[in-house]
Amino acid sequence: MEFEESGIGEECGVFGCVAAGEWPTQLEVAQILTLGLVALQHRGQESAGIVTSNGSTPPTYTTLKGMGLVSTAFKPEDLLKLKYGNLGIGHTRYSTTGISELQNCQPFVVDTLHGKIAVAHNGELVNAAALRKKVMRHGVGLSTSSDSELITQLLALTPPMEEVDTPDWVARIKNLMTETPTSYSLLVMHKDVIYAVRDPYGNRPLSIGRLVPISKLHSAVERIVDAESSPVSVHRYHREVQPGEIVQISKHGIKSLSVVPRPEGDPPAFCIFEYVYFARPDSIFEGQMVYTVRQRCGRQLAIEAPTDADVVSTVPESATPAALGYAQESGLPYVEVLCKNRYVGRTFIQPNTRLRQLGVAKKFGALTDNFAGKRVVLIDDSIVRGNTISPIIKLLKEAGATEVHIRVASPPIRFPCYMGINIPTKEELIANKPEFEDIAGYIGATSVRYLSVEGLVAAVQGGIESCGEKEQISSRTKMSKRIGHCTACLTGKYPVELEW
Amino acid sequence: MEFEESGIGEECGVFGCVAAGEWPTQLEVAQILTLGLVALQHRGQESAGIVTSNGSTPPTYTTLKGMGLVSTAFKPEDLLKLKYGNLGIGHTRYSTTGISELQNCQPFVVDTLHGKIAVAHNGELVNAAALRKKVMRHGVGLSTSSDSELITQLLALTPPMEEVDTPDWVARIKNLMTETPTSYSLLVMHKDVIYAVRDPYGNRPLSIGRLVPISKLHSAVERIVDAESSPVSVHRYHREVQPGEIVQISKHGIKSLSVVPRPEGDPPAFCIFEYVYFARPDSIFEGQMVYTVRQRCGRQLAIEAPTDADVVSTVPESATPAALGYAQESGLPYVEVLCKNRYVGRTFIQPNTRLRQLGVAKKFGALTDNFAGKRVVLIDDSIVRGNTISPIIKLLKEAGATEVHIRVASPPIRFPCYMGINIPTKEELIANKPEFEDIAGYIGATSVRYLSVEGLVAAVQGGIESCGEKEQISSRTKMSKRIGHCTACLTGKYPVELEW
Amino acid sequence: MEFEESGIGEECGVFGCVAAGEWPTQLEVAQILTLGLVALQHRGQESAGIVTSNGSTPPTYTTLKGMGLVSTAFKPEDLLKLKYGNLGIGHTRYSTTGISELQNCQPFVVDTLHGKIAVAHNGELVNAAALRKKVMRHGVGLSTSSDSELITQLLALTPPMEEVDTPDWVARIKNLMTETPTSYSLLVMHKDVIYAVRDPYGNRPLSIGRLVPISKLHSAVERIVDAESSPVSVHRYHREVQPGEIVQISKHGIKSLSVVPRPEGDPPAFCIFEYVYFARPDSIFEGQMVYTVRQRCGRQLAIEAPTDADVVSTVPESATPAALGYAQESGLPYVEVLCKNRYVGRTFIQPNTRLRQLGVAKKFGALTDNFAGKRVVLIDDSIVRGNTISPIIKLLKEAGATEVHIRVASPPIRFPCYMGINIPTKEELIANKPEFEDIAGYIGATSVRYLSVEGLVAAVQGGIESCGEKEQISSRTKMSKRIGHCTACLTGKYPVELEW
Amino acid sequence: MEFEESGIGEECGVFGCVAAGEWPTQLEVAQILTLGLVALQHRGQESAGIVTSNGSTPPTYTTLKGMGLVSTAFKPEDLLKLKYGNLGIGHTRYSTTGISELQNCQPFVVDTLHGKIAVAHNGELVNAAALRKKVMRHGVGLSTSSDSELITQLLALTPPMEEVDTPDWVARIKNLMTETPTSYSLLVMHKDVIYAVRDPYGNRPLSIGRLVPISKLHSAVERIVDAESSPVSVHRYHREVQPGEIVQISKHGIKSLSVVPRPEGDPPAFCIFEYVYFARPDSIFEGQMVYTVRQRCGRQLAIEAPTDADVVSTVPESATPAALGYAQESGLPYVEVLCKNRYVGRTFIQPNTRLRQLGVAKKFGALTDNFAGKRVVLIDDSIVRGNTISPIIKLLKEAGATEVHIRVASPPIRFPCYMGINIPTKEELIANKPEFEDIAGYIGATSVRYLSVEGLVAAVQGGIESCGEKEQISSRTKMSKRIGHCTACLTGKYPVELEW
Q1: CATH of the domain at D364
Q2: Cβ B35–C362 below 8 Å, yes or no?
Q3: Is residue B217 assigned to a domain?
Q4: Segment C223-271, tens digit of pLDDT
Q5: What share of chain D is helix, strand, coil (3-state, %, to 5)?
Q6: What is the C-alpha to C-alpha distance for residues A74 and A71, in angstroms, rounded to an integer?
Q7: Adjacent-strand bridge partners of C371
Q8: Among A287, B16, C183, C445, which is disulfide-ready with C203 (CB 3.0 to 4.6 Å)?
Q9: DSSP-derived secondary structure letter, D29
Q10: Which residues in chain A have Cβ-Cβ distances shorter than 8 Å to D342?
C-alpha cells in the first residue's frame, strides 16, 4: 500500500529451498517456501507462485499459483498438494493489474527435450526487445510479455536441443548470461538441483543461507536461497551469490560453479535503492545490515542538512532508522509524532469526493503532546511524487507544530529505472516538475533538504564523517572498487549502455 | 452434471465472430461471443475464454479468461473491457480439474515475429506426442500439455520466421494440416481475420452462419463461426466448414481459401456421437437436424428391438426425441414417467453414506399415475458405466411399474477415443465388464436392448425402413461416400492409424 | 429464473424431519433436511436455513443460514456442524433482494421464558398489520418486517409467560390460529417435537410422510413433514395436514392434536395455483397427482378451445403435461418445437442493448423439422405479463410455422394475492392492460384462448367431460364441499374479508 | 492478530455522525461512518454494521452489515445504497466466531409502536441474566444472546407502549440506566436524533467531536460521537460524554439532557486497560492523550524497576511509548531491536508441525547490529498468557543479546472482566499459573518485572515521581475523586457487586 502511494516498487521476490538428508523428506518444503514468500511479500503483492519437485527421474513438478497476497493466493488445501516436494522455488510478483494476469505469475515451468525446468526471476533484462526478436526469429511464439518466459525460451534454445545428448543447463545459463548483462537474480530448478544465478553487475540481490535446525528430530539442514537474507527469521545467513556467479544447490550442498565476468573496467552495480527503500531493515547486503545503513543515512543527513529545531521524528515506519540516526548525530531528542492506522487503505471509498483528500490524514493520527508548540524535523526516506508528505505536514501544523522541516534520507529521484524497479514516469516525479523549484512551498513545509548522492553513497559504502564514530567518507574510495552501486535513478548514469 | 455421471464428455466448444460494416463498430462483439459460449456451455464447463481484436495495425488484443461456467468465469465489469473489439474468438473447455488449470484455458495468444495470433481448438491431435518432440527438438519450451499451445508453436515454426517477409498464415495452417491429420476444428485469429479450419477427416464439427439483423439501427451483419450451428438462436445457419477446408472470415465476407485432401480412399470421419449425445438437438450437421436424427434412432430401435409393453417413455431430457420416435414407430403411447429436479447435483453432501445411494433417485420424481400397473419401455440415449440407469429402474418399479424394458438408442461403447472425447477407461465401460453378460439383471431391468451399429449408421445417414416414411436404408450406401462417420468408440476402427 | 420472467412466485418452502429410533442417532438429519430443501428449491431461491435440535433437556439448537440457492448457502463444512441433530426444520425463501436480508432468513429461533422455539413459515398473514400493532403495543420491538418473526412473538406473548408454569405450546398455537385465519403452513420446533400446523382454510400445502428405510442397518424410520409430498423422492407420502389441524411429530410417532375450525359455512381455500404452476408435477395434493391435474387442464382446454391445426406442442418444461393432455383430447399429434438452453439466464449481459431483446430467443432453440410449414398449437401454463411468449412466437414463425395458436391452460390472472404469492402489480398484469383486448395481435399469435375459471376448477376438482374417460364435470359440485379452492387471483373473491 | 495472540480484546467500537446544515445533505454520512469504523477497527474485527436514517417523518433507515473487517464487510456498491442518509450510527464487533453470527452484528434496528430505533452498544451488562428473564417474563422472545437486542427490548418495554402517546425515548433510556448500572456506551438513533449514553460508572469510553470543515464548499459541520476521540483524524475532539450522561446530537447541535448518578460514594470506574492496551495512542480520555499516559507508565516502570543494562527497546508497536518513557527516565539509550513483518499471521500453515513453533519468530526479524553483545531491556505493554514473549527472547539471545530483561508496563492480569473485555480464563492467565513463580525462567528472560497497580494508577491519574518533570504522585489523591478507574482484572475489585 505504501508502494502504491509512493509509486515505486520492486518487481519481484524469489525464494528457493532444498531439503537436505534422505528423500522423500518429511520436511515441509512447501510450507517453508510459503513462509519465505510471506517474508518477501513487501517485494510483490500482485501474485504468488510455488513450484516443487520431488527430485526423482523423471521429476514430478507441482505448481501452485494465485493472485494477490500469499495468504489470498494459496488456500490451505492447495498447500497439501505440494507436500511431497523435496525442493522448490517460489516467486512473488509486483503490481501491474489486469484481467488475465495469472498467466504472468511465476515461476514458469517449461517442458523441453531434456525435461522440465522451472524458472523464477527478479529483475528486468535491459536488452529484452532484442532478445525477444531473436527468439521469435527462431520461430518461437511468446505467450506473455514477461522476461521470465523469454528467459525460459532462451535457455531452451541454445545450444540447439537436437545436437546434444544431455541438457547441460549450466552451459545454457552461461550462454544466457553472455547474451544479456543485467538485471536478473534467477532461480532455475531442474529435477533435483536449483541453480542460483546473479547477473554480472549484481544489480538485484540474492543470498544463500540455511534453515536453523529446530530440534533433534529434524537434524536435516535445508539450503535456502532468496532475494534477501531475512525472509525466514530462522534462516541463517550464509553468503550472497556474487555478481555473475552460478551456484548449484542440491541436497549434497552448495557449490559455486562459475563466475561470468563483467566487461573489463565496469564496476558492480547493486541497486542502491535496496538500501534506501525496498529491503527489509533486518536484511544483510554486502556484509552490512540495511537498518544500520539507513541509520547512517540519517546521520549523514544531519551533517549535510542540520536544522534548528526542537524534536526529530519519523514518517513511520520505514524512515525510523534514519530518524534515529539524525537524532543521534544532531543531538536533538527523538519523539514520535504520528501513529498509523494499519487498517486504513483497504476500504473502498468512492473516489472523486472531498474524502479522497483526507486519504493520508486518516492513515495517521497526530500524537499532539509530543510536538505541540515545537519545531519538528520530520525524516522521510524518499519523496517520489510529493503527494503523500503534504497532508502529513498539514496535519502536524494543524495539531500545533510551529515549524515542520522535512529532511529526506535519499536524493531526489529524477530518472527511470530499466532494471526491474517500477518508477513513475519522468513527468510524475516531483523532482522533474516546476513545483520542485519551491518544493517547501509546494508541500507546505518550513524547509526541505535532501541527502546528496555523495552522502548516500558514503553512507552505503561504509563511512560517514562523524565525531562520534570516526568513520571516514574517504574510506569509500577503496570500497567502491569492490562494491559499486547503481545510482541511475538519481544520476541518469546507467551501468550498461541501453539498447532501444 | 449429466456428463459427470455418464462419464463421457466433449473436449471443447469454439466460437468466433466478426463484425461487418464500419469499424470501430458499436456492435457488441464481446457480448455475442459470451452468448455464443453460453450456447456451447454443454461442450465444456471447466473454463471459458475470449480474445477480441480491434483489427487495426498493429492490432490490440484483449483477453478474458476464467474457471467454471461462462457465468462464473466472466464478471460483468470484465466484459466491459472487451467492448471495443471488432472481431474475436472464444472457447469453452471440458472438465479435467487441477490447481493451476487457468493456464490451460484457451484461446491461446502468442506473439510471433509477424505479430500476434490467437488460437482456439476443439479436438485432440492423434500424433501429438511426435509433434511435441519435433517442436522441442527445435529448442522450444512448452509450458502446458495442451494441444492448443502445440498448435500455436507449430504455426510459428514453419516456414522459418526469419526467412519470410510476411507471415502467410494460410501457408502455415496448410503446413500444420499436412503434419497432423486429425482431430481439430480450429479458429486462428490474426489482426482483422479469423481462419476457420476443419481437419481433413472432418472429425469435429464447425459451421458458419450470420447474426440476424435485429433492427434497422443495426443493419450490419456479423459473420459467425462455431462448433455447432445453433449457439445463438438468432444465428442463421449458413453452411459447415468442409473437411480439410480453410475459410477466411473478415468484415468483407466469407471466403473459402483451400481444401486440404485426405489420403486417397479414406472416407470422412465425423464423430457419430455428436448426433447421439453431444450436440444440441437444434443443431444442424451435414444438412440434417440432430433432433430428427435422434428421432430416427428411436424409430430404428423400435424396428430392431420391439417390445410388448403398455407405454413408452424417456430418461429426460436428452432421450426424448428417440422416445418419441420409438413411440411413433411402435404405435405405443408416449407418456412421461419421470420429472427432474434441476437443482439437484449442486449440493455438497458428505460422501460415503447411504445418502449417496439416493443420488439419482432424488434427481427424479416418479409420475406414478402415468405408469403404475403398466409395462414401461424406457428409452435412454446411451449407457456408459451403467450406474445411473439402475436407481431409475428401481424408482419406477417401487412406484408400480410391472415391467421396465430398457431400450438404448445407441450401441454399447467399448473403445477409447483419441480424438477429443473424454471416455472412461476400458475397464470402467459397462460393455467391457463381466456384468454386461447379464446387463438386465445387473441394472434390474426386465430386458435391455441396444441399437446396432448398422442401425445407428443407417439412422444417421438418412434412411430407415419404416412403413410410415418409406425412407430406405439402402440409400445410405450412396450417402456414405460423402459423409462417412467415425464409429471408433463402438467398433475400435479408428479413421487413421494411431501412433504411440 | 422462470419465476423472474413470469413475475409470479411462491413465497416459501418448509421442511421438517424427526429421526425415529434411539437418540443420539446416526441418521443424517441435517443432510436429509438439505436434500429436502433442494427438492423445494423451486419454492424459494433467495435464502435457505436449517435449525436442528438434539432434543435433550435443555435442547441445543444449531442454526445454518445463507443467501441464495441451498448449494450456495450451505458449505460442506457447515453441514458437519449440524450433524448431531436428532430433529430439525428447514426453510427456503423467495426472492425480494436486499443488502441485509440474511436477517429475514428463516427458521427464526427465539428464546422464551420456557425455552427456545424455532419457527418456519410459508404463507402471509392477511391481518399482519393489526397483529404487528398488537404485539408492539405490548412493548415488543420487531426487528424485521417478516410475518415469521411476528408469529414467534405472538406465540411467546399469550398466555402471559409469567402466569404459567409450563409452556403449553399447543395452546399458544391454537391461540395464534384464532387470531389469524390464513395463510400459513407452519412448523414449530420445541426441544424434541415438531408441530406441523396448517391454517383453517388450508391455503398453503403441507404434507406428512416418512423416509423409506434404505437397508437393515438403518431400520429407523424418520418422520417427515414438508410443503409438498415429493421433496425427497424416497419420501413415502403419508397424508396431508388437514386445514386447521395441529399435528405433533416426535420420535414416538405422528399425532393429530387438534383441528381449529373455519367460520361456519366457509369452504376450504387451497391455492389453485399450486396445481397450475407452483408445485412439482410429482407432488400429491388432495389425493391427486399434480401432473395428472395439469393433464386434465390440457384436455379441458382442448374441449373449450379446439383448434384447427397440424401439431400440438409445449413451452418446456412446465406446460408439457397440459400439452400432452391437449394432444390426447384433440387427437392432434404431439411434437417438440423448442429446445431449452439450461445455462442461459445466468450470464451477465449489459442491459439496455438490443441483446436484451434476444433474451428469450436465445433461451430456446427451434426444432425446425418438427413444425416448418405447419400450423402449431402451443400450450403455455399461464400468461402473466405477456412478455415471454412473444419472442417464442416470433422464433417459431421465423423458423417456418405457418400459424401459431396459443392455448393457455389457466385463466388470466387479474387480481393481487394477499396470501403468500408474489404477483406483479395489477398494472403489470397483461389481463388488466388495454393490450389484452387484442392479446393475439399484441403477442403476435394467430389466436389466443384461455382455460375458463369453471374449466380449471373442474379439472382440479376431478371431472372433465371427455369421451375417453367419462369423468363428469357435474361431479365437482359434490366435491367442492370438501375441497374448495382459492381462485382469488382469477376472480377477485378472497376466502376471508381483507383488513386494511 | 495481536489480540488473538495476547488473548484479550475489546468487545466493540461504536461511532455516530449527524450531518449539520440543510437536509437532504450532500455530505457523505455513510462514508464518514465507514472511515470512523476503520479507525475503530482495532476494537472489533468480527463484523461491522452501519444504519443510516434520512431523518424524515417517518424516517427511512438503511442497514449495511457484514462479517470481517470493514473492508471485507462493506462492498463499494453497498455503500452507495447508504448515501442519502443524513445521520447514522455504526458498530464494529469483536471476535467470537460462528456460522450464523451475522445476526449478532450490530446496530440492531427494531420497530416499535412509536417508530423504529437503532441501537449500537459497547460493553456488557453486569446484570444481563436477570434482565433477560424480566423481558422474557413479559412475553418477549429474544432471538440472540446479545446484550444489544436485550437493550432494544428493554427500551421498548417500559413505560408500557400502549399507555403513552409519544415515545419519550429519553425517559426510556433513563429507565434503562436505572435498571442496569454498567457497562455500556450506547448510541440510540431515532428518526433525526442520536442519543449518546454512557453508563453511570463511565466504564466504556465515549466522546463527542465534530468533523473539520474541509473547504468552503462544505461549510456544514457534522457532529460526531465515537468510542475514542481519534477515529477520523479530521475529527476535532470536543469533549467526553460524562459518566451517566445522556447527550442528544442533532443537526441543531449537541445538548446534554441528563446525568444519571451513581450510588452515593461510588467512584467512577473507567476501564484502566483502555490506557494500557486497547485505545489508539492518539486518543484522548479524561483530558489526557493515551500516548502520554503510556509514556508515563514507562517512566514509572523505570523508577520501580531500574535495570543495569546497555539499551532499552520495545516489542513493536504498542509498547513503544512506554519504552521511550523508560529510556527517558533511566537515561539508557533507546534502540530498535525487532522489525515486524506485517504480512505474517495471515497465511494458512498446517498446524501441529515444528513450523508452528516458529510462529512468532518469523513475525519479527532481529536488528542484530543494535544489540549484539549488549544487555537489553525489552519493554512490553502486558503479558497475558506468556506465550508470545518467549520466542522473541529466544530470537534476541540467539542473535547475540547477552542479557534480556523484560519490563512490563502494566501489572499482571489475574481476574476475569465482566464488563465487556474478553480475557482468557483464569487458568490460561500466566499470572495464575505455577510457572509464574519463576516467570523469568519460564519465558527464558534474564529478569522480569511488572509495573505495580499503584504505579499504573499513578501514571494514569497524572503524576509520576520524576526528577525531570516534577509531576507528583501525591497529586493523584485529588484527581482520583473525579476520575476513579476500574482495575478489576488486576485486583479483583469490581466497581459493582456482581449478580450471578
Answers
A1: 3.40.50.2020
A2: yes
A3: yes
A4: 777 777 655 545 566 788 999 999 999 988 889 999 999 998 899 999 9
A5: 30, 25, 45
A6: 6
A7: none
A8: C183
A9: H
A10: 342
